[in-house]
Structure formats: C-alpha cells, structure tokens
C-alpha cells in the first residue's frame, strides 16, 4: 500500500512549483502575526491562550518581548532587549525588518517566523536575528524553553529564501549560516520545541529537526527537495534526520524524495504529537507547563549527555564541503552555458 501512495507523489517539476508557491502565494490566515497568534475566544484554555503560566503558575503581564518591534506614542518603533542584569534596553528598529517576532513570558520564549507571504522562508537577516537571540538567551540565563513556529496556517518554514539561494557561492555554503544557527539551537541549554503549523520544507524541516520536540498540526507536510535541485540538505538534514527516524527512512526522504504527512511523520518518530490545526498552540502550552515542572539543572545535563552520545562533527563538515562543491559545480555550469 505504501508503494501505491508514493506512486501518486508529484514529480520534480511539480515539487519545484509547490516550493515556489509556498514562497509566493499570500497566506490569508496571516493577518497580524498569523493564525497561531489570534486571541482566545473559547475560555482560558483556548487556542489563543498564550503565553503559558510561568514557574509560579502565573501568566505574564501583557506581552513583554525580546527583540520585538514595539510602537511608541510618537509612532516610532523600538526593539526591546533583555540584558544580563534583568533590565530592558530599547533600540530603534525597522518594522519592515521584523520577520522574527519573539514573545517572552517568564521562562518561555515564543519565536515566530513572521514572513507568511513567502511561506516563512528565512533570509540571512532572519538567521542573524536568530543567532543574536540565542546569544541573548545564553547571556541572560532567563529562558528555559524556546518555542519556534511560523506565521499563518499554510507553512511552518519553506526553507531558505529562493532569491538569496541564487546569489550564494561555494564559500558562503562552506560556512553556511543556517547550519551554524541550527546547531546553536540544537545544543542550546534551553529545551526547544517546534510547533509545525504547516509545510516544513528543506531548511524549514532542518530547523524543526534542530529542536528537541516537534508538535505538528494535522495539515503539516515534511520533505527535503534539495537533491532535486542539485543540492544537499546541509544544515543538519543528512545526519539529524537519520538519528531520529533511522537510516532507511531518512534515505526514503532524502534520496527517494518522499513527502510525509503529519501521521506518517508521527508513525516514524519525526514528530512527537499530531493535533488538529486549531489546537496546536494550546497543546504547545500544555507541553511547556509540563516541562517547566522538571528540574532545570537535571534537564540541561540530561540534554548535554544525549548530545554527546549522538554528536558527529565529521558528518556535519562533510555535508558542508559536499554542498559547497555542488554549488561550485552549478556556478561553473551556468558560466559554460552563458547564463
């Protein structure tokens, strides 16, 4: 039966069209900060009932933000940053550049890729903001849980911005920003959780793989299209996927081009739970409340011990070198063709 299911999968041309559509088509559910950020309408445990209670069982006052655009009375926009001493610093920010929105409540950070009109595809500036955020988290020692999700209801993350992909060379790939940032997320002292609210494609799936836990909406889809484009999933996909689902199933996705729906991903351990689309955020909240009841030092040490067991720097470096060679080959081919 599985063979019949896979025979109906779209070919490379159709797959390419789907990826492009994720980064082009407007998401009608992405008003404001996106579908997952809509206010609750059905009581204190409703879908929009965010953020979760802090360690004392209390909810935060308002929406304190870490790196979030905050309008002031004179119409300018500021960015708030928590400092190591617990105080708040405020900086000027460009509202059009706020594609990474962060909400803070006690020990929980909700990080939202806020680019739904492009399938929440990440740019280099977004990766730089994520990198900056992880540095702030390590310096302040205030957060215990980081939740990553996407705006809207169609896409968690469509991977790297296609426009930027066309401009990179082998040197930038050798020092791939996404690989470095995702590795920082994977090895963070915080517990990390991906709330996969739609398609997780290419680097978007690799971002989810960098998290400790993955909760998926029933509409979520997972695939790694890089080999169809003459590339590798070099930001962690080649080793992280196999460590989670096993080598044979990882080959099915990377080499065979399989596209998994949420139930298939759950069956093979890629996601920890599948929920109805409109219940995703409330389930994330429940997970956060449960995780916060566990001793922070014990969970941090346990995470470090498991990472030491599975760490493989040689596999990471090989993927980056191979990717840079593929990009170099593609550039040479383009020059030979006069393009």
Automatic annotation (TrEMBL):
PROSITE patterns: ENOYL_COA_HYDRATASE. Coiled coil: none annotated. GO terms for biological process: fatty acid beta-oxidation. GO terms for molecular function: isomerase activity. Residues 1-77 are annotated as: Disordered. It comes from the Bacteria. Residues 1-28, 42-58 have a biased composition (Basic and acidic residues). The keyword Kinase does not apply. SUPFAM superfamilies: ClpP/crotonase. Keywords: Isomerase. The keyword Iron does not apply. Belongs to the enoyl-CoA hydratase/isomerase family. This is Enoyl-CoA hydratase/isomerase family protein. The lineage of its organism: Bacteria, Pseudomonadati, Planctomycetota, Planctomycetia, Planctomycetales.
